[in-house]
Specification:
By secondary structure, the protein is of the alpha+beta class. It is built from three helices and eleven strands. Strands 1, 2, 3, 4, 5, 6, 7, 8, 9, 10 and 11 form an eleven-stranded mixed sheet that branches. The radius of gyration is 18 Å and the shape is globular. It starts with 11 loop residues before the first strand and ends in a 15-residue tail after the last strand.
Length: 191
Amino acid sequence: VGVSDRKPNFPEIGRFHKGAPKNAAGHVGRDLDYLRFASEDKAAEQALCDAYGKTPRAINVFLPHVTIEENWSAWKEEWSASTLLHRCDGVRCVDWLENGERRHVAAGGPLCPGGCKPTGRLRVLVVAGTRLLCNRLAYATVETTSINDILRLTEQLGALFEAGKGSLRGIPLILSRGPVSITRKRVDSRS
């Protein structure tokens, strides 16, 4: 249990980021106008650079799995330096630390203690030229903490799922980075 009964999945080859790496003081890096790819596999970083340049704004990808939930997760999370403290749906926790032990439930966990921020992760297979990146069935994770990205990706994946007649697997997509106009609800400071 918990070893050979896990869901099928590909290994992760790297991650796409919207910002520069953290600085020496540990502060979040500046926002970038391109997608930054980071991997422990330097050959994968070089292959992506060869295919898309050092500052790619658009990358050809497709989704590896059938359902939205297999390709995309969106939660609110609180992290310490390297440990997930809790993951919730905004109301109730589904994953949390309790007395040093990891707890996990599908639904109905304890109330969210707060201190969390939205986090979305999309798994994609990267196309480099006419082949998969490094000729490997390995996904790259696109991570965002922008509520606007999470809303947009959730809507777009839902529409793609319906258009794909119940499957997202193999739909060619372009992962892009660029400015988008958003509308914010005005807050009246007099109330």
